[in-house]
## 1
Amino acid sequence: SGESVLATLSERAQLLGKISDVASQNQIRVQSLTPKTETEGGYVRLKIDMDGQSNFLQLLKFLKSVEKIGAGIKVSDITMLWQPSSNPKDRRYPLQVQIIFETFLKQRVKKNV
């Protein structure tokens, strides 16, 4: 069943960590990674807003790698701004990117004692 794909809410921090790891493996500068949750029925919709800097090829590799993390993560939105820098150190990161990842998490079942 598709149920097993969903991470639990307690795994949210792990998920953020994995996205962060995958970003650094793909030489993406992460400026912020912000989780937002909304409850929908018995589930929690997790949106992760990421701001960072990259180049186009690194960005493509990163997006493919994130989908391989599993946990049903999908890219729901991506915005890119071309901002080449005059600073040679920053030329490797000409794109300012904003990505919104989305997945559903299972809520912990509260047992009435």
Note: The helical segments are 12-25, 56-68.
## 2
Amino acid sequence: MSGQRWTLDTAEKRQFFNSHIAQMLQAGKKPVVQFVRPLRNPKTPDQIRYAHSLCQALADHAGVPLEEAKTDAKREFGVIHVSTSTITGDRAARLVSFSDYKKDEMSGFISAMEHHLISNNIPFTPAAL
């Protein structure tokens, strides 16, 4: 298994992987353990920096701290996770951190922020991502 990388994004692949490990152990071979997690669609560091710069432009225009502008922007254009409590049954919503956005979610946030800034004549430096 050394030198191989596995993406275990389906139940069939996970089952095959587990049977492969069992066969190796029966043959007396010791598998190399690597951290395995679901395949993600990662956003780029440039997207994160640009999203922060758009939020900074909003903060500068409104005269508020960056974190306040970023929170408001995420409420309007970002990803919100809604869950229901198993104890009380109450629904709760929380804003998702930029680090947990998928690439397409970050692209959507950036497009919405650019549109908002342009529509409100708020100066910002456009970036080509």
Note: The mean pLDDT is 83.
## 3
Amino acid sequence: MIVYHGTTAERARKILRDGFKVKRGKVTNDLGNGVYTYCDDDNGAWDPYLNAMKFAKRFRRGRTCVLKVTVDDNEVRNNSLNLDYPGMPCEWKIVRKSFEDNAGKIWKGFPHSNAKKRHNIDGIILEKVFKSKNIFTDENNNAENPSCVLKQTYTSFISHTLSNFPNGRELVIRNLGMITKIEIQED
């Protein structure tokens, strides 16, 4: 599977040299800890390369570029948590209720950052779920330590915009061992 990661040219060179690193100990993003990439969706509604480029231009300073990342198809197929499956809204309601007080306390303890400005504790809740056993599962029973997370999302590519409708699909790589190749994507 091919996915795309938007970043600065400087960070891209470092990633090509040293590989991706997953930072912990700060506010996590909406889908938990991992390397955030854009991927194809089942309907071909969004261009993942274009989304990665728009993300980099909107949220990164300096010259931007897109990394083309190849991930192991079997790992995506067999050990991913798909948060778009039909039963997830009911599951998430229960999970969120169980963890939101604790996640809110954790969120308050994190240092100030751009991610913290958004006041989103979903990623903290997901990290709690991954450490718990049998909290919820998707249609493939993948919730305990998945290699990656899939979700249709909305990214504010235009300043100060929000929407209830997704404009892309993200694949968050949690297991860096599933990455088989990284290269700079040329236009």
Note: Helices lie at 9-18, 48-59, 73-78, 88-109, 114-117, 122-131.
## 4
Amino acid sequence: MTEKQQALLKSAQTLIASHGFSAVSTAKIAAHAGVSEALIFRHFKSKKGLASAVLSAGERARSEMIYGRLNDPDPTQVLRSFTAIQLNVLNDSESVLAWVAMIRITRENPESRTIDAFVLERLRWAISSVGHGAEEAVARTAIEILERSILLAFRGDEESSLMLLRGLRELLINE
């Protein structure tokens, strides 16, 4: 990816994370990046093409921040680590920005949402192992709560974010 493509991607992530996908025009993204709007269309073909690049970057960031936490052989530790992600994740603001932008796009365009198969499977395993039924539904709900928590923390509402995760941990592992 060229420097200008990276600048456009970073600007798109910043603006989408803060304002949402629909509220941000290609002109605003280009101005924020300090380039011409034509470069968006040259490099990404359309706003949708740029959104696709934002989604891909967000998926990579999400994977980097979650995967290592899900490899423990103890299912309770997997769930404990999963519900503690937000506490540690805000230290890497660039990855958080990519993940938040991805979340904002998928909230506005649910057809673009993907659930990471590895994350879903590890959560299903851990949830089932600690005795919960309906592990698919519980795992999907846990992912949704984590994403809501990250959005709240990104917006500066750390207290509500932490309360969501504490509640999730209580429901999952009674802690």
Note: The chain has ten helices and no strands.
